[in-house]
Amino acid sequence: MKRIFLTGSTGLLGLSLYKELKIKFKILRISNNKKYKLNKSIRYLPFNSKEKINKFIKKEGIPDYFIHCGWGKMDEPSSDYHIKENVKFSKNLIDSFFRSGLEKFIFIGTINEYGDNLGIVKENKKPKGKLRNYEKGKTIVGDHGKFKAKKLNKKFIHLRIANLFGPITKKKSLIYSMHASDKKNKNVEVSSLKFYRDYLHVDTVAKYISKLLLNCNNSSVVNVGSGKKLLMRNFVKLYWKILNKNKNEIKFSKDINLKINPGFFMDISKLKSITRSKLKRTLLKEIKTNIKQFKI
């Protein structure tokens, strides 16, 4: 059975990835968080030390794939942590594992690396507008991984992931607010939601990544998205209809002067070509899956 080292396995995408991949692979979950020092299911590894990473490699060996999904301070996109600690930790992992013999490193990037583009966006599209430190950090790591892979004749796969929804239990999240209102039998109050997203359920992305692992054999940037854009007002209307059965209403805030941002979505022709994907997904199916998964 092939082995995977996985960081960030307790986050939204990382947890879904772990559940998807453990069926076919032997997974070693790794974390930079000190709270896992005594944890038996997740191995603690300080990413700030190449020396300790190398000692870890000597003990655990080299996996067939390394998936770097871990990324700190996700709730603070403007923090310097993204362009300092997150970048340093990621570079340490890339450098140490490549030099020790790793062949394939998969880095989880974000759709936000494209900035404020419009229309349909291919992988070679340059970012537009001002990027936050979160996106800057992801871009820096992507460039570094590509450089190191070329220099050492390795494979670095940079996945730019669409906006995700899943069973998020953060109280300020859109999904949580709908489930909380449904439980209390109240109308749900949300913002105007006059914007578009390239939107996918987290389990769908995990399935795509599973296919990419086996079929992407060259260093590459790959968009992992829906291939379309979705007006978030419409998403909430459909979700609420399925969840609440029309018992209560949605109260959108009235931003009279707010124009709808046309936004952009990612071209996924490369994703389909590499995975030869026949994955059948519909928004309706994904919403029903999420409602079943959600616990409040």
Report on this model:
- The chain has 296 residues and is α/β, with parallel strands linked by helices.
- The protein has 2 domains: 3-164 and 199-227 and 267-275, NAD(P)-binding Rossmann-like Domain (Rossmann fold), CATH 3.40.50; 166-196 and 229-263 and 281-293.
- It has helices spanning 12-21, 50-60, 85-99, 133-152, 174-183, 202-215, 232-244, 269-275, 283-293, and strands at 3-7, 26-31, 42-44, 65-68, 104-110, 119-121, 155-161, 163-165, 188-190, 196-197, 199-201, 220-224, 230-231, 250-252, 264-266.
- It has a 7-stranded parallel sheet with strand order 3-2-1-4-5-7-12, sandwiched between helices. A two-stranded parallel ribbon has the order 6-15.
- Helix 1 links the parallel strand 1 (3-7) and strand 2 (26-31).
- Helix 7 packs across helix 9 (283-293).
- The longest helix has 20 residues, at 133-152.
Summarize the structure.
This protein is α/β, with parallel strands linked by helices.
**Largest sheet descriptor:** 7 strands, parallel
CATH architecture of the largest domain: 3-Layer(aba) Sandwich
Find the CATH superfamily of the largest domain. Answer: NAD(P)-binding Rossmann-like Domain
Overall shape: globular
Q: Strand fraction band?
A: 15-25%
Range of helix content: 25-40%
